[in-house]
Amino acid sequence: QQQVKQSPQSLIVQKGGISIINCAYENTAFDYFPWYQQFPGKGPALLIAIRPDVSEKKEGRFTISFNKSAKQFSLHIMDSQPGDSATYFCAARSGANNLFFGTGTRLTVIP
Amino acid sequence: EAEVAQSPRYKITEKSQAVAFWCDPISGHATLYWYRQILGQGPELLVQFQDESVVDDSQLPKDRFSAERLKGVDSTLKIQPAELGDSAMYLCASSPTGVLYEQYFGPGTRLTVT
User: Fold this and answer.
1) How many CB atoms lie within 10 A of CB B22?
2) Of A30, A44, B58, B90, which has fewest CB within 10 angstroms of its CB?
3) Are the C-beta atoms of B21 and B77 separated by less than 8 Å?
4) What is the CA angle A54-A69-A67, rounded to 5?
5) Nearest by CB to A96, which of B42, B43, B48?
6) Mean pLDDT split into 10-residue runs, chain A, 111 residues
7) What gap in Å lies between CA A84 and CA A90, rounded to an integer?
8) Which of B 50-109 lie inside 8 A of A, CB atoms?
9) Does residue A83 belong to the interface with chain B, where contact is any CB pair within 8 Å?
């Protein structure tokens, strides 16, 4: 059973556009929601993270929006660049720092 | 910048053979994780260590997989015997003490079982 559901599976955005990736969860015990960026042949790298007591967090061009009542959160990439082309994973933490990952979104930013 | 080291980066083995992966976490990180990432999916936790002790190995297929972190520093993940379905990326991650949420991943070992 997938603990964190992620969509879309793939996304193509024009340079300068906004990329939006959505995730949903059911387990209300989750207390930390990170996003990871993964380039081919590399391990995932922490991009940005949010706690459920905050509705939005922004770091540069990356913003997490969090809707606790709907149990949904999303990643917005503003002014998307070709260098942002990668696979993005949302995740949720439960218990002794166990992370449950979504299935990933392959983002392609075309010049 | 300190990184999690893993070796080998790639491994091809025949089914029924034994295979081992090595991980050296970021210096000072007490918590170490092994994940398996099947192509096109997100990582799934196999085992978590706090120092040399196993915290969670509920998802580790113990009939063929084993993991150890004898001195609480580097760690080895072993598969014996390997099966075709074990083909995946094996990722190691570590967390700094007191900041449990941030997990730093290594580059992974790509295993292909033929």
Assistant:
1) 14
2) B58
3) yes
4) 45
5) B48
6) 91 98 94 94 92 94 96 98 97 84 97 93
7) 16
8) 50, 55-56, 91, 93, 95, 100-108
9) no
DSSP B25: P
Residues of A in contact with B44 (CB under 8 A): 101
Tens digit of each residue's pLDDT, chain B (114 residues):
789 999 999 999 999 999 999 999 999 999 999 999 998 899 999 999 999 999 999 999 999 999 999 888 999 999 999 999 999 999 999 998 766 678 999 999 999 999
B33: which 2 tokens? 């994780």
Residue with tokens 């990643």: A75
Residues of A in contact with B110 (CB under 8 A): 41
Measure the CA dihedral A40/A46/A48/A51, to 10°: 130
Q: In this structure, what are the phi and psi dihedrals at residue B71, rounded to the nearest 5 degrees?
A: -105, 15
Total residue count of chain B as it appears in this document: 114
The answer to whether residue A29 neighbours chain B at the CB level (below 8 Å) is: no
Determine the 3-state secondary structure of B84 from DSSP. Answer: helix
